[in-house]
């Protein structure tokens, strides 16, 4: 497959849907390692590295629709005809586009804190996107890659309640991007390619999306307020419930996986 890396572990029982996980900007499939560790003995778990992230190569088109098609390519490559899709951050925006384009692939959809409708980029991230638009972000990040504690206090720290090993996160998330030739420039291009118009454009399709959907939202997120979870509930008829993770930040699926997984199990088990 064209430059797409993914994690594929566990088997599950015959006929059981595959759990497919999608991360957001500046992270990778590594975000889902703790969720997968809890599920791998009972389910086949697949986690994509979106283009430019983790082990996946960059692409010319890094817009939301193009990223959604990368997920479709992986499904086609692996023959995944019915998946329980779980997404976070920008991956949640990708998942919304994927859901309206490839409804036939989905058994269920779970959205955690993510870009919704006009909230792209979120206000707390807007200055970072502006640096990317000026061509100033790549050099800035590259200069501090060897100072993981500094990154943990700034870029990554806002998404976590606590980071015990910032160096490990930098190596898993940022180094694979910025160690590539022109990876920094590609990252700037990615940030400026993500456009709220692509989410606004699919609102009519979301209003008729009946895929059983679970929304799990950390309430301590500075990027994605819980009001956006309610927007999803009020817009997507398939939403069954909103679960609030008290105090959870953007990357709670990583650091509080033990709270997310029981809700996934319960939701999946309730579906025919």
Automatic annotation (TrEMBL):
GO terms for molecular function: hydrolase activity. Residues 20-254 form the AB hydrolase-1 domain. The keyword Coiled coil does not apply. Gene3D superfamilies: alpha/beta hydrolase. Pfam families: Abhydrolase_1 (PF00561). Keywords: Hydrolase. This is Alpha/beta hydrolase. It comes from Nonomuraea antimicrobica.
